[in-house]
Amino acid sequence: MTSTPAPKRTLLVTGAGGFLGSAVALACAAQGAELILLGRRQQPLEAIYDRIAAAGFTLPHLFPCDLAQLDEAQAQALAQAVEQQFGALHGLVHCAADTGPLMPLADLPGKDWQRLLHLNLTAPFLLTQALLPALARSDDAGVLFVDDPASHSKAYWGAYGVAKAGLRQMAQTLAEEWDAGGRLRVATVAPAPFRSALRSRIFPGENPAQLPGAEPIAAFIAHWLTPEGRTLTARCFGPADIASKTQNR
Fold this sequence. Notes:
The protein is built from 8 helices and 7 strands; from the N terminus they run βαβαβαβαβαβααβα. With 249 residues, it is an alpha/beta fold. The chain has a 7-stranded parallel beta sheet with strand order 3-2-1-4-5-6-7, sandwiched between helices. The longest helix is centred in the middle third of the chain and has 27 residues, at 110-136. The radius of gyration is 18 Å and the shape is globular. It starts with 9 loop residues before the first strand and ends with a helix. Pfam families: adh_short.
């Protein structure tokens, strides 16, 4: 008697051209997911597409999108396209982020404040809100926001730190609102420092070779997005959660 294969899960990853986003995409593709990859630039998206193709996984769908410019109409149009092509969405991972220039709030130009708040907080809100109907059609779906608590209330981190603090609060509010139904999980993950182009730009004197890669974080996220990941019931995951899960796999 042959077993029925598990239905394919459709996942959307923002910032998919970056270090963490691309690692998450690869980890999810390795588990058989069908991926919708959002990123600001086409070339990094094509690079992760090629890596997924070379591994023999299901080819992803690429969606170049500058979240710093995303408005409500664009978010709704994307959600409509997802629903028409896939029906249900099983996971949404917000990896896109930008710190902007680190400087005192007194010196931060208003246009940079608005752009960074939009990219790091408003755009995730608009995209999540627009995709909630597609997520709700799944028997088990998850929304995961990547947090950076080290930036909260920290000097010179400006709009980025404010946005990340707001992102955590938004995730907690969303989790409270959807917890009763049990079909949509919402959480944040706050990893320890890892190698990335963004971190190299912020800390140019740091030796990237001394930092871990994004793969353990990506493996944790990919597992959390599976039905088996429902056993991970925290709403805020930190480095210890990631390390524990990686050691047990």
